[in-house]
Write a structure and sequence with these properties.
The complex is a heterodimer of chains A (314) and B (531). Chain A is an alpha+beta fold. Chain A contains seven helices and twelve strands. The chains are: A alpha+beta (314), B mainly alpha (531). Chains A and B meet through α2, α3, β7 and β9 of A and α4, α10, α11, α12 and α13 of B.
Amino acid sequence: MFFGTKAFAGSFMPIQGSTFAASVDSLYKFLVYASLISCALVIGGMIFFAIKYRRKTNDDKTAYITHNSTLEFIWSFVPFVIFMIVFGWSWYVYLQIRVVPKGAFEINVVGQKWNWDFIYKSGRKSSGEMYAPAGEPIKLILSSRDVIHSFYIPAFRNKQDAVPGMYTQMWFNAPKPGSYQVFCTEYCGEGHSSMLAKIHVLPKDKFEEWLRNDPYKGMNLVQVGLKLFDSRCTACHSVSEENKVGPGFKGLFGKKRDFADGTSLLADENYIRESMMMPAKKVVKGFSNVMTSFQGQLSEQEVLGVIEYIKSLQ
Amino acid sequence: MTSTSTQADEINYLNHQKGIWSWLTTLDHKRIGILYMITVLTFFLIGGIFAMLLRVELFATGKNIMSAAQYNQVMTFHGAIMVFMVIIPGIPAFLGNFILPLHIGAKDVAFPKLNLLSWYCLVVGAVIAVSSLLYGGVDTGWTFYTPYSIHTNNGTTFVVIGAFVMGFSSILTGLNFIVTVHKLRAPGMTFWRMPLFVWALYSTAVIQILATPILAITLLLIAAERILGVGIFDPALGGDPILFQHFFWFYSHPAVYIMILPAMGIVTELITTFSRKVIFGYKAIALSSVGIAAVSFFVWGHHLFVSGQSELAGIIFSFITMLVGVPTAIKVFNWTATMYKGSIQFSSPMLFALGFLFLFTIGGVTGIILATIAVDVRFHDTYFVVAHFHYVMVGGTLMAIMGGIYYWLPKIFGRMYSEFWARITWVLIFIGFNVAFFPQFVLGAMGMPRRYYDYLPQYASLNRISSVGSWTIGLGFFIALGVIIYAITKGKKAPANPWGGKTLEWTIASPPPHENFLIEPIITAGPYEYR
């Protein structure tokens, strides 16, 4: 059985990326072994009895055993004790997962259909890729701009819903630099399975350097737009003519757009800007009104960058 | 005895009245049971086809046969149909309706007209729910989480109202069963002499009438929010989305026991009959049904472990959830102990009961793993959960329904089925099930989230195996449908008691006469007197 081997933890489970991952895994392993033993007892007993006491003749007589109080007490009490051990152990581990150490480095995480934004106290923002210093407690303050999302990092063994209208929190301390996968685990519509992100854990000096950087240093507007597009738009829009959740953008600028309400328009700068800020106003025919507004999230440089980038897709 | 049974061979509940109208207006619990059977099996076929389509889409990464939007709709319909139209009415309203009055020696249920009304509620609710397809369908998942369900397409309103109406079917059936058990037991049929299937249905009925109204209110609030714009759950209107989850799971967690308790009841009957042995720990099994029903009302918060509810609430709900494990474990041990020194016959109903025991045990222990809050934080909303509840709902409830259908089919239709083909269906369903769902535990441990239209390449091979397994189950159920239809139309005539059962339904002809018992039975002993 592959559960029994030492490779169990290493082979298919995500690596232990946070300080408490090993505690969670120990508890989990205990549960798996306890489960295997219970299953072996019950299923083994069942198979053993089924074979040993199979019907031999059509008028077999059977023992008339109605109950056995001692036996029944034991098999009620023993599971109860095991459950309570598991419960107490789990409580202890749960507190490790949930209690945020004082002085943790705070990062705001904002979910929106269908990408994750990260806002740092320094004013630096990133999207789809979060950066964090290694070996330090990091507190994530989660919120959502539209529906409920959930921020799940398998390697950290941690997860928390991002709920519109309230802040929730989670924390981790990743000792090793590296890149860790993030999934959205609360169903949020068409782009749910593409609402992915990466957490890049950097050595502290590298992280501080990243934090100070102007992300758009030395870039022209099209490059700014491309960078932004890659992290925030690709879950729903392609740069070819292929349609995903939303329309593809190749050759969009200057082309006639037909809308669901029957009107049409030549796509110009005003149209692109309006579609980012008030996406519900003009929905392209054949698509549903699912985009969340980018109002108030982008700097003027970024808005112009996206417009210029779309214009360049001819 | 022989003269009455030959007489009953000629006139029974199936042929004492004729024509479709006699069926649509029938007040006979047995005929209503068959109406439910047709409805439930039809929806099972549709929900099953949706499941196959999902697995085709998930066979490989990227787009295979449908878009993400279509996938979400198929996923929602699969879940909603299987929950509201198959598993919830499956055992109580179909097999329970037919068997419960026979088990307690009654002519019918207490309120035959309500019984018929409850079937119409299910059908009307189902029609309303399906009509959502004309309004853009529904893509919320069967859980209708707000605020997503407030803003998505208009079909949602129809499914929500449909589920509301179907809820009344469940409430009325529960009410009917409670009154029937209290008022219509045959002389001498004390509570401690009732078959354990009746105890299970009784416990289920209590949950049905106490919990379902909460769902009804919650669904109405969603409809009100969508249609009238009243802010209840949507933060954009000043509502609280977590409140919805509390309301929803306050019903839907007990509903899980609406789905599994009757299945446990069937398995109890099957194991005792096919072991030809008195049940071990009758009172423990009966009271554990009641215990599970009672505790089930206080565990809903384990669905909210990562939702943002307080840590203290999470810890308390984790504790209470573990407690449900105790009566559940008691049942499993009692079933196993019943086989000790029995005379075990491997007829297909018993194979399904053993399959149940095998799969439900795995479903049960993984339930404890998920109740462990520190571990659930990581497994929540991953394929580990999907695997767990399919082990309980399919490995548990559907295995029990199949066992129950094969067990009572000779009684219901007076015909025998092909034992050979019934065993083939068991092999396909049992093996297919494990191939389909065991890999999903591993996928969950690897971190794959549920309700994903597409997945990362590292999850591809296990998804492929799972898909092949799902089609094997599908083939098994498809053949089973053939076995059932062939038995009903062309099967050999069944004797009154083909399995040597001791409960009351086996004392009357197959199929039973219109009013069940030609002579009112008088009960002098327990239900499983194999001496």
